[in-house]
Each structure stands twice: as structure tokens, then as C-alpha cells.
Design a protein that fits this description.
Blueprint lengths: L2 H5 L2 E9 L5 E6 L3 E6 H4 L2 H5 L6 E6 L5 E7 L2 E6 L3 E5 H6 L8 E3 L11 E7 L4 E6 L4 E5 L4 E6 L6 E8 L2 E8 L4 E4 L9 E3 L9 E6 L5 E6 L4 E4 L4 E5 L8 E7 L2 E6 L3 E6 L4 E6 L5 E6 L9 E8 L2
Length: 312
């Protein structure tokens, strides 16, 4: 069975990202495909009446292997794959029927044993630095202007799943990995996290997602065990969210005054910061890998999740 036929029955959408205008949504999947959707078309009356109404603006092969992560950086869309990191122009993705070569290709070094999979991306606008969480157990820092590697941070003992920046007033960033650790970094201290947390104490526990609120004081993280909240000033755990037993959490964000989590459950859970369940929104997804809110357009302020699909 060729790839095109296989895609009809099975796909994993690993990540999604909104365009700078907030009018388009890009997704990436296990086949290396990057697909751009028109949010306006998806929310139109015709789409509600006829779900088959075309809302795809563009779909193309962005990577030779799986594409795991996406990040908007000003007018650019950055995609992380199993071999490299590629940079695309958003204007071309939304205004053209064809995609030319990427603007830039970044090749992650293999600092330690492991694959250079770019599992997560984050951008520090203040320091114009792109961070990539990679399968070799490192977080790599990039200068997108020159395409050069600035530094590699190797405090994890296994591959890194996720990375996020603390806030606009701090140069610190945070990563989570297969080793069950959450590492808090300062760019001036490569290879030495300023603090390491182990939210999940059991053997084989891992961290799949980290997020920080706008104040930079609170962090939520999740993975193989129930997601939890930390106060970053004291590095103390304040809340453990009572998700269904056995649920894996692979996406968590702050949304207004609430925390939203998704994972191996057919509901999108909304929580207060104290751990009280606000809502469990039903979904047809058997497994969601992330959740994102479109804050770039008040007209199209939607919430999207990336998912696993298998149809036989």
C-alpha cells in the first residue's frame, strides 16, 4: 500500500500553529506533510452545512520523514522534522498554490547518542533565539537570521519532548524529557540547568508538555502521570490535576484563568488553577497530542487540538 492510500486510513497530526494574522492554521503529520487551512473557510456557514467544503489552502511534503513540531516566528513558519528544521515563508504558504524550497534549513548536531528529531520548538523574541527540543537529549539554540547554531544544552539524560520560553521579561526557557525531568535554563549557563524538577517520581515516568503563564510565575507540565502546577518562584508543586486514571497528558496550556489539558482521553479538560474541573468537552479524537488557542485574531479565536486518526 503506497503512502497516499495509507493516509486515508491512518495519520498522526503532531502539531499545529497559527499564522501571524490568525486567519490560517498549519498542521504537520507523521508523513512529513504540512497542511495549511483557512480558518475563515472552516468557520463559514457552508462548512457547517457541508463538512466536505474545501478549507485547505495548501498541502505539501515539508520533510522526508515525520514532521513533529511547528512554530511561527514573525512572518516565518518553522517546522521540525526527523532529520532537520526547515523555515518557510507564511505569505507564500497562504497566497500561493505551490511551495518552493524552504527559506532556510537548519541541521541539528548530534551532541550525544540519539536521533536529531526536533520534537518541540519555542521562540524567544527578546533574544531572537529559536530553541529546538531534540532526540539526542539536547535543546539546541539557533539564530534564525544567520541560520547558525548558538549553543546546545545537554542537561537531560534522554530525548527531550518539549520546550517553552518563560516569558517576555526573562531569557530563561524550560524543557521536559523522557527522563522525567523538567529543566529550567538560563542561556548564559549552557549544560547546567539553573534548576531541575522531577514532578513524577516513578520509574519510567516522562514529561511530554510544559507551558508557562504570561506572568512567568506559574508552570504546568504533564506526561505519563497526572499533570501538575508549579510556582516557579519557589519551585514548589501547588496542584495536581485529577485527570482520569491512566490518562497520558501530551498537551497543556494556560487559557485565560484556566488550564486546558489533552491526551489519551476523548475529552478536552478545562481546570481552575486550583485543580477543580470546569468542563470536560467531548471530542471524537481517541488521542490528542496538543492544544492551542488562536490569540492572534479576535475574529477567529478558536481552540484546536492535534490528533491521532485510525480508520479501518
Amino acid at each position: 500500500m503506497d503512502t497516499a492510500a495509507l493516509e486515508k486510513y491512518f495519520n498522526i497530526v503532531f502539531d499545529q500553529e497559527y499564522s501571524p494574522s490568525g486567519k490560517h492554521l498549519a498542521t504537520c503529520d507523521v508523513y512529513g506533510q504540512i497542511t495549511v487551512f483557512s480558518i475563515a473557510a472552516a468557520l463559514s456557514v457552508s462548512s457547517v452545512i457541508d463538512p466536505k467544503t474545501k478549507n485547505k489552502a495548501l498541502s505539501f511534503t515539508g520533510h522526508r520523514g515525520p514532521a513533529y513540531s511547528l512554530q511561527t516566528v514573525d512572518s516565518l513558519l518553522v517546522s521540525g522534522g526527523s532529520e532537520d528544521i526547515r523555515v518557510w515563508n507564511w505569505d507564500q504558504l497562504t497566497c500561493s498554490e505551490d511551495v518552493e524550497e524552504p527559506v532556510t534549513i537548519l541541521q541539528p548536531p548530534v551532541v550525544r547518542k540519539g536521533n536529531p528529531d526536533s520534537n518541540g520548538l519555542a521562540y524567544d523574541k527578546q533574544n531572537t533565539t529559536l530553541y529546538s527540543a531534540c532526540g539526542d537529549g539536547c535543546v539546541h539554540a539557533w539564530d534564525l537570521t544567520t541560520g547558525k547554531l548558538k549553543a546546545s544544552y545537554s542537561g537531560h539524560t534522554s530525548y527531550v519532548h518539549c520546550v517553552c520560553c518563560k516569558n517576555s521579561e526573562s531569557s530563561q526557557f524550560i524543557s521536559g524529557g523522557e527522563d522525567g525531568c523538567v529543566c529550567i535554563w538560563d542561556p548564559s549557563t549552557a549544560n547546567h540547568p539553573v534548576h531541575t524538577l522531577r514532578p513524577m517520581k516513578g520509574k519510567g515516568e516522562w514529561i511530554g508538555c510544559v507551558a508557562v503563564d504570561e506572568s512567568g510565575e506559574w508552570m504546568v507540565c504533564g506526561g505519563s502521570s497526572a499533570p501538575c502546577m508549579y510556582h516557579l518562584g519557589s519551585f514548589s508543586k501547588t496542584t495536581t490535576f485529577p485527570v482520569p486514571q491512566g490518562m497520558v497528558t501530551q498537551g497543556a496550556i494556560f487559557a485565560g484563568e484556566n488550564v486546558v489539558t489533552v491526551g489519551s482521553n476523548q475529552s478536552i479538560h478545562h481546570w481552575t488553577v486550583n485543580g477543580s474541573l470546569v468542563a470536560a468537552v467531548p471530542s471524537d479524537q481517541t488521542h490528542a497530542f496538543s492544544v492551542a488557542v488562536n490569540n492572534r485574531s479576535p475574529q477567529y479565536k478558536v481552540k484546536c487540538t492535534r490528533r491521532y486518526r485510525s480508520t479501518m
